[in-house]
Design a protein that fits this description.
The protein is an alpha/beta fold and 390 residues long. It has two domains: 259 residues, Aspartate Aminotransferase, domain 2, CATH 3.40.640; 121 residues, Alpha-Beta Complex (Aspartate Aminotransferase, domain 1), CATH 3.90.1150.10. The protein is built from twelve helices and twelve strands. The two termini are 21 Å apart. Bound molecules: pyridoxal-5'-phosphate (PLP). The site of pyridoxal-5'-phosphate has 15 residues, from helix 3 and helix 4.
């Protein structure tokens, strides 16, 4: 039997009855849009993450778009993003006419480096690209917001990031698309992903730690005014009723059926997080024996949900060799991310060059991911280890 990269079939067998019951109830109710399942899920997940409110959205990307719209981000604004992330993080900034300003990542956690955020904000303020590599015309921009990403399931360094953001009056939007369920101890209190910043966003794309059976996402906030804005933007800027539009918005709703799927899957989610962490521990024991590999770091006070199990090889050549060995043994692999966003053709207009973000570029040349999901067995992991050890 072939090894899956993410085993959604085994997971489905575990929740099939509950999922089918949930979907049948929606089918029979006729409330396909805005059914009671959506509010129930919002309440449950806000409670789990420790925020006052949650707003279900059509995708993680829509959650980010809505967050930026609610904070009035637009042309002339600089929004600081890491370049080592999925396209959506910076795409939404540019879609709204604002300018992504890239901030390189930490070489150990792969998350935004707070010291470099400080430099980048100062460089924009001074309009001086000799202080930090900037996009074209950055001198005319107003620093407005920062979008830290919790990459591969590990929370960014919010202790430091929140303090840099506060010092410079930046809004923080947490991109927790990969980290739902992860934790971080901040000032002695353990907090969950989706509880950082003015608005946090997550995704329920099937391959994410908590996935549905289609597209879905959610915004989280503690601020009642932002809650009202997000709800309005979600339905074309609706005012007191459907036919009053007080601002521009989108069709950003989470489907009732996906909410029903998520309610069923959330029941086993804490157990799945535990299983992911056990699988990661087994990988560390095995792969630590292979010279040259840098395994995922989990700093003290953090827990990861291992959305991906990403390994850094010593060189691109070692990565190539390992990927070939794994391929020969029919072990699926993937590279997240082979090209950082500042070097993507879609952002060529920003004028970044190779060498602008040296850490992201070095990591992109050496990183690769191997199978990771809650149902990975010790036996399969040993097979993967043997294929890599050669
Ligand atoms: C998946 C992902 C998104 C977008 O989520 P979708 O639900 O696919 O729109 C945004 N940011 C990051 C970091 C992601 O991994």
């Amino acid at each position: 039997m072939s090894i899956p990269f993410i085993d959604l079939k085994t997971q489905y067998r575990r929740v099939a009855d509950e999922v089918q019951q949930g979907i049948r109830a929606v089918l029979e109710s006729g409330a396909y849009i805005g059914g009671p399942e959506v509010a129930r899920l919002e309440e449950r997940l806000a409670g789990y993450c420790g925020t006052r409110y949650a707003v279900g959205t059509a995708s993680g990307t829509d959650a980010l778009v809505m967050a930026l719209m609610a904070l009035s981000v637009g042309p002339g604004d600089a929004v600081f993003c890491p370049p080592f992330t999925f396209m959506a993080t910076a795409e939404v900034v540019a879609l709204l006419g604002a300018t992504p300003v890239f901030v390189d990542v930490d070489p150990v956690t792969y998350n935004m480096d707070p010291a470099q955020l400080e430099l980048a904000v100062r460089a924009v303020r001074a309009g001086d690209a000799s202080l930090y590599p900037l996009p074209k015309n950055a001198g005319q921009l107003t620093p407005k917001a920062v979008i830290p990403v919790d990459l591969f399931g590990l929370l960014a360094d919010y202790q430091a990031l929140l303090s840099v953001a506060a010092k410079h009056g930046l809004f923080v939007i947490e991109d927790a698309a990969q980290a739902f369920g992860a934790t971080l101890t901040l000032s002695g209190t353990q907090r969950r992903a989706c509880s950082f910043g003015s608005i946090a966003c997550t995704s329920f794309f099937p391959a994410k730690p908590l996935g549905c059976y289609g597209d879905g996402g959610m915004c989280f906030t503690d601020d009642p005014e932002l809650l009202e804005l997000l709800r309005s933007i979600r339905v074309h800027g609706q005012g007191r009723d459907k036919y009053e539009n007080v601002r521009l918005g989108i069709t950003g709703r989470l489907d009732t059926m996906q909410a029903a799927v998520l309610l069923a899957k959330f029941e086993i989610f804490p157990d799945e997080v535990r299983l992911r962490q056990e699988a990661a521990k087994r990988y560390a024991g095995l792969l630590g024996q292979i010279p040259g590999l840098t395994l995922p770091a989990v700093p003290d006070g953090s827990t990861s949900v291992f959305a991906q199990y990403s390994i850094q090889a010593e060189t691109s050549a070692q990565r190539q060799e390992l990927l070939e060995r794994l391929g020969k043994a029919s072990v699926p692999t993937s590279i997240y991310y082979p090209r950082p966003l500042h070097l993507q053709p879609a952002f060529a207009n920003l004028g970044y060059r190779s060498g602008s973000m040296p850490v992201s570029e070095a990591v992109a040349a050496r990183i690769f991911s191997i199978p990771m999901h809650p149902y990975l067995t010790a036996q399969t992991q040993e097979e993967i280890y043997r294929a890599m050890a050669g």
